[in-house]
Structure formats: C-alpha cells, structure tokens
Design goal:
By secondary structure, the chain is α/β, with parallel strands linked by helices. α2 links the parallel β2 and β3. It is built from eleven helices and eight strands. The chain has a single domain, classed as Alpha-Beta Barrel (TIM Barrel). Strands 1-2-3-4-5-6-7-8 form an eight-stranded parallel beta barrel, surrounded by six helices. The protein starts with a strand and ends with a helix. The relative contact order is 0.15. It binds phosphoenolpyruvate.
C-alpha cells in the first residue's frame, strides 16, 4: 500500500452554518468514490458556529472534523472563549492549535499554545499543531531557531505517547494564502528536521501553504510529508479532493 495521505481543510473564517450544510450537499457525492480508500484521511476544520452542520456532514461521510482553536481552561470568566468540554459535545476529534493567524494576528504566545496542546491531549482530542517561520525569519537565517522554539515550547514535557499523538503542520507563514508555495525540497527539509526534533519517527507531519491540485503531487511525494493542511483550496469540494487525485495520478 502507498503511504497514507492526510488531507485536512482549514476553512478559517469562512462558511456559515447554512453554507456548511450546502458544502456537504456537494461534498458527499464528490467524496463517495474515495470513502473506502485506506490511504486517505480527510478532515475539515470549521468555525465554531458551523460545527453542528460540520459534525453531521462529516459523520455521514466518515471524515474527521474539528475546530480551529480552543481555550485551555475548562470553564469560567473568559468572555468570548470556547472550552474543550463545549467542543467535546460536538464530538470533535481534532483541534487546530497555533495556526500562524492565531500567532500573528491574535498574538497567541508559545506558552498559551503549549497549555492548549496539553489540555487538548488530556481531553483525548488530537491537536493539529501548526508552526512555521515568517519571510523575515527565513531571510535572516532564523528559520530553524524559530521553529525549534515553537515546537519545543509545545512538546517538551510531554510523554513520547503524547508527542506521537499530535499531528504536526509545518506552515511557512510566507506561503499561507499567498499563492507562494515552498518548493518540495524546502518543505521536505523542514519536515525531515522536525521529525528528528520531535523524536517520533512515525509522527504525522503535514505541509501547509497554498497547496492545490497543481502542486500536490510533488509536495506529497516527499518522504517526510504525510499530507497537507489546506486553506483556500478546501472551500470547494472539487479543489479540495483534487489534491488527493493529483497526488495519485
Ligand atoms: C492554512 O490556512 O493553514 C493554509 C495553508 O492556507 P492556504 O492553503 O490558503 O495557503
């Protein structure tokens, strides 16, 4: 069997409740031919307000699903936040943490992301832990220093079993939503380096940053890239699933 590909869609702040229902009207038949593929795992991450129709659609299709953020405290005076117990009632299986938009627009610190990672693991949910450098950091030769800080702060102190449970997503900030993609060699270099730093040879490591049908095959064929975290191209069933078909072609 060829390697298993993880195809995860991050909708960001897109798709209302009704738009999510409509998405699944189109997604269900488009996904049907791939439903039994044992080398593919599809996941979708929606805004909190769309989690109910996402959960219904995802369960019918047999894909994993989750939220794009969560707070680490279980309840209390944290106006505007959403807790893990709240998400558990929607049966979410995965939660994206540390996305660069959370780090850079909402100023989430490594410390907060580490607390979220531990709380999500403790709840039996899989964190999809994002990390990656900005263009400035890459150009000043700091790519690996920055990523080491981001990764170590989240995983140091976790058990090997916990580290192995996390799904890691290397997302160079300069490639997210910009149409610029890391070259397969650039992406592979970081993913291979990450695997060593994590210390778990079988860790699942995704690449994210303007992945689409036209660049999927070369990126997903790299030895240390286990799949893609996809923003823009995940909003339409055809462009999302095309990433897998292009890889297989
Ligand atoms: C993302 O949102 O994580 C992402 C990689 O976005 P895009 O595919 O649009 O670059």
């Amino acid at each position: 069997m060829s390697k298993k590909i993880y195809l995860y869609g991050n909708w960001k702040m897109n798709n209302t409740y009704s738009e999510t229902e409509k998405f699944f009207v189109d997604f269900a038949p488009a996904y049907a031919p791939f439903k039994d593929a044992d080398d593919l795992e599809v996941g979708i991450f929606a805004p909190f307000t769309s989690l109910w129709p996402l959960s219904q659609g995802a369960k019918k299709c047999g894909i994993v699903f989750g939220a794009q953020n969560v707070y680490y405290e279980p309840k209390g005076a944290f106006t505007g936040e959403i807790s893990i117990p709240m998400l558990k009632e929607y049966d979410v299986t995965h939660i994206i943490l540390g996305h660069s938009e959370r780090r850079h627009i909402f100023l989430e610190s490594d410390e907060v992301i580490a607390k979220k990672t531990k709380a999500v693991l403790d709840a039996g949910i899989i964190p999809v832990l994002c990390y990656g450098e900005t263009l400035e950091e890459r150009e000043s030769g700091n790519t690996f220093t920055v990523m080491e800080r981001q990764l170590r702060s989240a995983i140091d102190g976790l058990t090997d079993a916990e580290k192995a449970k996390i799904i890691y997503a290397y997302e160079p900030v300069w490639a997210i939503g910009t149409g610029k993609t890391a070259t397969p060699d650039q992406a592979e270099e970081v993913c291979a380096w990450s695997r060593k730093l994590i210390g778990q040879p079988k860790a699942v490591i995704l690449y994210g940053g303007s992945v689409k049908g036209s660049n999927a095959k070369e990126l997903l064929s790299m030895a240390d890239i286990d799949g893609a975290l996809v923003g823009g191209a995940s909003l339409k069933p055809a462009s999302f699933l095309e990433i897998y078909t292009a890889y297989k072609a």
